[in-house]
Amino acid sequence: MYNKALTTFNNNIQEIVLSLKDSCLEKVLYYRDEGNMNIVLSIYAQENEEKYVIRFKKISSDSTEGNFNDHKHELMSFIVFEELLQKYFDHFTVVPKIVFVDVDINALNEFLMRDRPAVRRKKIIGYNYGLVYRDVAFLPKEIYIGKPMNGEFKDSPTICIEIKVKQGYMMDEDSSTQNYEIKKCRYCYFQYLKLKTSKISNISQYCPIDLFSGKADRMNRAIKGLFENPQNNLKMFQDGKMVYNEYSPDKGSLKRIMKSLFPDVKSVDKQELLLINLIRRILIKDFTCCDMNVDVCSTYECNDDVHLRNCHPEKYPQLPKNCILYSILKAQHLVRDNFSIMEYLEDNINCEDGYDQIIQDYRMGSTALDCSVMVTFRHINVNEDFDIESDKVFDKRNYIKLTGPTGYSHHFISNVTVVDLDEKKDSFAHFHKYKKQYQESKIAYLEYINSMQHVA
User: Fold this and answer.
1) Dist CA 20 CA 3 (whole Å)
2) Residue 374 near residue 33 (C-beta atoms within 8 A)
3) pLDDT tens profile 247-256
4) Spatial distance between the Cα atoms of 338 and 333, rounded to a whole number of angstroms
5) What number of CA atoms fall less than 13 Å from residue 7's CA on the CB side?
6) Could you give the CA distance from residue 142 to residue 140 in angstroms, rounded to a whole number?
7) How many CA atoms does the CB half-sphere of 65 hold within 13 Å?
8) I need a labelling partner for 77 at 20 to 30 A (CA). Which of 207, 328, 382, 424 fits?
9) Cα–Cα dist 36/117, whole Å
10) Residues sharing a CB contact under 8 Å with residue 138, sequence separation 6 or more, in sequence order
11) Which pLDDT belongs to residue 180?
12) 10 Å Cβ neighbour count for 251?
């Protein structure tokens, strides 16, 4: 039944049935990852087969909410919403199909419990219905055109970096409300509220304004900040298995991966620099054409005191219009551009009629504020006579050559996908929380600075 179900994935059937025996779960499924609302399971597949994951909604372990039919309808609405987002994310998205996993749900939850982080176990899978996606932790099968001619793929692992990029623009506000000259973005302010409420133990060096700037040194600083303190904003997978995140911040695993990617580079710092530059280039790559070369930027913008650091928006962001970051920022601007109208509608709730498009745009924009980017790549060992123009191994649009200042080069095939496009169903509830959280975050920051000054 497992092989039959995999075959049906390619037949454009809206609902798929996957029948499993409780005793055979470990031969078909394994735990991948989870967030607050959903849990993701991988489906085992052979090396030359397309790979898939199933995403299930979680409920409280003592909950009795909903029924199968209601949940199935919710999943159908989710798919329709993702299709609406296609005009912003185009080829960067993977639209799922509905799957019914015919298995005892209690047995499935028990099977997964050993692999789940302890802090996540208060919620469980609540429904047999889920969503099946192509596994974006691996490269899509269609970019491989034929068997390798001048390159080897067999022994090179597939690496995937998941980045929750967050809001890439500054909030517009009257500067007179600031008690300090420091002005931070929504994410950086929120770090202090999370610190105040003990959700994190230290402040991240990551700033989304740096990442969306398009400037090499600022983007490198942002990516380095994610590796130093991943929180829930960075996860790293090797061949579909989690190897580095906030719950498993093992720098040893990270170093082993960097060494496997750049075996001829002895310095760990230089290996990290190459990895950061590779990720940066994939984030701004135009996958509609063959722009393959990457010059390594060996500098980071001055790493000053994170608490006194301004989040500087670029007057003219340098993001290519066909890259993933530009697509996300364009969608996020739906929140910015409709913010004042949403504020009016919130205060005049009876005036909602006729503003359906505004509310819909805000809903799509708020989804983009919390989406994740999956940066996927695989190293290629090439011969001296390798010629990208004549090679028939893979789609040239997915090829990247990383070139260093001393003449070394590394070759990769890559892809990027946007995920976690979960609809914020109640736009006004989100809007209210958005404003309230931002104000509380600013207060938490000012309190922190005051406390630091008193200590000094």
Assistant:
1) 11
2) no
3) 876 778 888 8
4) 8
5) 4
6) 6
7) 12
8) 328
9) 12
10) 51, 158, 160, 239, 240, 376
11) 56
12) 11
Taking a C-beta distance cutoff of 8 angstroms, is the pair 394, 413 a contact?
Answer: yes
**Full DSSP string of 47-71:** TTS--EEEEEEEEETT-----HHHH
Residue 157 and residue 261: Cα distance in Å, rounded? 9
Say whether pTM exceeds 0.90. Answer: no
Is the Cβ–Cβ distance between 34 and 40 less than 8 Å? yes
- Nearest CA to 29 among 125, 94, 120? 125
User: In which residue are the tokens 């070139």 written?
Assistant: 403
Closest CA relative to residue 420, chosen from 119, 176, 125, 166: 166
- Ranges of beta strands (E only) in 203-262 are 234-238, 241-244
Handedness of CA 121, 440, 434, 374 (dihedral sign): negative
Question: What H or E segment, with its residue span, contains residue 419?
Answer: strand 409-419
Query: Running DSSP on this structure, what letter comes out for residue 297?
Result: P
* Distance separating alpha carbons of residues 307 and 324, to the nearest angstrom: 29
β partners of residue 59: 124
Report whether 290 contacts 397 (CB < 8 A). yes
Residues in the chain predicted with pLDDT less than 70, given as ranges, are 1-14, 22-23, 47-48, 64-68, 144-155, 173-180, 249, 291-304, 317, 349-352, 383-394, 404-407, 454-456
What token pair was written down for 187? 């994410």
Residue 263 in tokens: 């075996």
Q: 181 - beta bridge partners?
A: none
